[in-house]
Amino acid sequence: MMRSTFASFTLLGLGLLSLALNGCGGSSGTITPTPTPTPSPLGSNNSARGMVLLLQPGVDPAFLAREYGLTLDDSDPSNNLYRFRQRDDDREDRGSLADRLKKDARFTDAEPDEGVRCPEGNSVMGDPIHVPFDFVDTSDSRYTPLASSFTSTTVNPAASSQLGLTSSRSVKRATEVIVAVLDTGVQASHPTLSSHLISGYNAITPTSLPDDIADGTQNTALGHGTMVAGVIAQIAPDAKILPIRVLNADGTGSVFSVVRGLRWAVSHGARIVNLSFGTTTASRTLQGAIQEARKAGVVIVASVGNAGKELKDYPAGFSDAIAVAAVDSADKKASFSNFGSHITLAAPGTNITSTYVGGGFATWAGTSFAAPFVSGAAALVRAASPNLDSDKVADALCKSARSVDTLNPSYSGKLGKGVLSISGGLNVK
């Protein structure tokens, strides 16, 4: 049921309404007109003139904004984190502006607030390969009724077999381990997910709930976070999933929102954090937040991107993150998956079925859906060995991985330690 032209789908209640748009996959079909949503606020996905700034404690950000002819666009005072915006008529290069601001002792750091994006949506530029999206309706053999147990291996059977999920079911299933999903949000009312979720945070609009809703211009990543959460719920059904909204429904966001969301997740008990998005820019602010999280004992898991190239996408490119590539059901590198010496592990990333907005299920592919298999496995390791620090959790997963270099001679040494083995990881101390 994979399709050749771009399409995305949404549901009204439990009924299916197909909406064709320039999104993540799909075939030609009936186009149902739909109103164009209002674009997200500047702090979420419009980073063209934004600066992310760290200030010294006690410094007045509004005064600094006026002094430098900037607009104070957003703030996280508890972390001395701020977002300023250049005026529309300001022609100064953002890099030059950052260099100028860093010379001011009142700033701890300053850099352009680069955009981040989930690699499966094509409403953003940067990845030449955009992975098809496919809704699974009731007539499809892959459809999973809401009454069935999403924890069973009848969902994603190929992936379950590859990962040894069946044999891991006899162990503790990550009770009370909190896994944060920084993404497009999660549908809180989804019948399959609702019991797995705890109250989260909207880092784009803190006064709103972290729901997975249509608020982009094309909504090509609608459901992305809900599907990521569903994969984690299948692997670690007793874990508690903490939804943090850092991307809009186009799959775009900003470093500022990601850092704010990550720090909130850590301060609210997250032990595992899943980051299924990236940027080609190695943001110092983002790297610092990830280093802080790791020092606090948090395991950071990140997808490596879908450009099909040997390149670093960040945060997966940072050494403090577990960088996850995607393989197909035969343990071959997925055509879209990035690769390289920075990769930590690989996991299934093709034809992954998971929970989708509207109460149903869908099939998607991408490194975004390989990463949550590792996040779920990390939660299981944490539950089985609560005293392991974040490095030891990563070591356990790496030591038990199955090398697939012989199956991927062109990528030898560039798919990390190999394919995740959940049952093996639980036996490593």
Descriptive account of the structure:
The chain is of the alpha/beta class and 429 residues long. The protein folds into 2 domains: 48-113, Alpha-Beta Plaits, CATH 3.30.70.80; 134-425, Rossmann fold (3-Layer(aba) Sandwich). The chain has 10 helices and 18 strands. The model is unreliable at 1-46 and 123-128 (pLDDT under 50).
What Rg do the Cα atoms give? 21 Å
The percentage of residues in β strands lies in 15-25%
Total domains? 2
User: What do we call the CATH homologous superfamily of the largest domain?
Assistant: Peptidase S8/S53 domain
CATH architecture field of the largest domain: 3-Layer(aba) Sandwich
- What would you call the shape? globular
Question: Uncertain spans, ≥5 residues at pLDDT below 50?
Answer: 1-46, 123-128
Largest sheet: 7 strands, parallel
With strands numbered from the N-terminus, the spatial order across the biggest sheet is 10-11-9-13-14-15-16
What is the helix/strand order?
EEHEHEEHEEEHEEHEEHEHEEEEEHHH
What do the pLDDT scores average to? Answer: 84
Write down the CATH class of the largest domain.
Alpha Beta
Helix content: 10-25%
Give the arrangement of secondary structure elements.
Layout: E1 8-12, E2 15-19, H1 42-45, E3 50-55, H2 61-67, E4 70-76, E5 81-86, H3 94-102, E6 107-112, E7 115-117, E8 134-135, H4 157-163, E9 178-183, E10 201-202, H5 224-235, E11 240-245, E12 252-254, H6 255-267, E13 272-275, H7 284-295, E14 299-303, E15 322-327, E16 345-348, E17 352-356, E18 360-364, H8 367-384, H9 390-399, H10 422-425
Parallel strand pairs: 9-11, 9-13, 10-11, 13-14, 14-15, 15-16
Antiparallel strand pairs: 1-2, 3-5, 3-6, 4-5, 7-12, 8-18, 17-18
Helix pairs in contact: 5-8, 6-7, 8-9
